[in-house]
Design a protein that fits this description.
The chain is α+β, with helices and mostly antiparallel strands. 21% of the residues lie in helices and 12% in strands. A hairpin with a 3-residue loop joins strand 1 and strand 2.
Length: 97
């Protein structure tokens, strides 16, 4: 990724340097399992809406990273309380007795 302006993402292929521009209003960066917020800190102030999520908060197992990334993506642009989606729960909820 070489650029993002909240309307388009500019990409460049790492071997051929071929450029590509695609329409995108949101961007989710997925990195390696390493704690730390260096990327977040570097981008803060350059991007209007920036969220810290997943392993950047606290490294964990892949299931936690997938859940947190999915949860963050679902909540993009949603004001207020977090959304609840039953299929992402560790165990399926049981109906009351």
């Amino acid at each position: 990724m070489t650029g993002f302006d909240a309307e388009t993402v500019d990409l460049e292929q790492i071997f051929s340097a071929e450029a590509l521009r695609i329409a995108a209003r949101s961007l989710v960066i997925v990195g390696q399992r390493a704690g730390g917020s260096a990327l977040f800190d570097a981008l803060q102030g350059q991007i209007a809406s920036l969220l810290l999520t997943g392993d950047a908060i606290a490294p964990g197992v892949i299931a936690h990273a997938v859940y947190q990334g999915h949860k963050t993506a679902r909540e993009l642009g949603v004001a207020g309380a977090a959304l609840r989606v039953g299929r992402d729960m560790a165990f399926a909820p049981r109906p009351p007795p």
